[in-house]
Design brief:
The chain is an alpha/beta fold. It contains eight helices and nine strands. It has a five-stranded parallel β-sheet with strand order 2-7-1-8-9, sandwiched between helices. Helix 1 packs across helix 7. It is globular, with a radius of gyration of 19 Å. The chain binds guanosine-5'-monophosphate (5GP).
Length: about 210
């Protein structure tokens, strides 16, 4: 049998865009992807479970993990640490299974440095589209408000540069379908398929 490594998919995007909602809806449908459960120092919210939503750790424990290089990436977000356990990701990819991360943008950039072969999906707020319309149909907003929105949009667009795909989160269902389409397309990419064929030929010649 030809061993093929899994693909690392990273879903990220600006705060409040709905990454968690899209990820949960995706995992209700898709069982082939393996979700990497993050570590966090934030308190558990009601309804959450250790080892299901997160691995909950103290700041000391988290900092020890950073020191021991056990995290693929980590970031501080609203006063708490969040990070991706390195071992789970590497082991799962080695087994040929696809891994899915849902993380904020600073972390996604770190993953990109360590795993440039990963597939980076930027979840974009629909307001960006709306914003464009508003700017085009000027006149209703004060100039200061338009400038503020433009600045925010510009920052968001600049964040997109490091990503392979942009999915607008207008409707959760449609965003999920697009992510699933990306996963399928990535499996059909020539680079990935060709290397598999080459390995197959090597095996049949020996
Ligand atoms: P929440 O506290 O609402 O569950 O998550 C807050 C933010 O942390 C979300 O944007 C979520 O995507 C992000 N996040 C969750 N896990 C990780 C992680 O392992 N690493 C990074 N960098 N961000 C994460």
């Amino acid at each position: 049998m030809i061993e093929q490594k899994g693909i690392l998919f990273v879903l990220s995007g600006p705060s409040g865009v709905g990454k968690g909602t899209v990820r949960k809806a995706l995992f209700q449908k898709d069982t082939a992807l393996q979700y990497s459960i993050s570590m966090t120092t934030r308190p558990m919210r009601s309804g959450e479970k250790e080892g299901v939503d997160y691995f909950y750790r103290s700041r000391d424990e988290f900092e020890q993990m950073i020191e021991d290089n056990q995290l693929l990436e980590h970031a501080e977000y609203v006063g708490n640490y969040y990070g991706t356990p390195r071992h789970y990701v590497e082991e799962t990819l080695e087994k040929g299974k696809d891994v899915f991360l849902e993380i904020e943008v600073q972390g996604a950039l770190q993953v990109k440095e360590n795993f440039p072969e990963g597939v980076f999906i930027f979840l974009s707020p629909p307001s960006l589209e709306e914003l464009k319309n508003r700017i085009v149909n000027r006149g209703t907003e004060t100039e200061a408000l338009v400038m503020n929105r433009l600045k925010a949009a510009k920052d968001e667009i600049e964040l997109m540069d490091a990503y392979d795909y942009v999915v607008v989160n207008d409707k959760v269902e449609s965003a999920v379908e697009k992510v699933q389409a990306i996963v399928k397309s990535e499996h059909c990419k020539r680079e990935r398929v060709a290397s598999q064929y080459k390995k197959l030929l090597e095996v049949s010649q020996s």
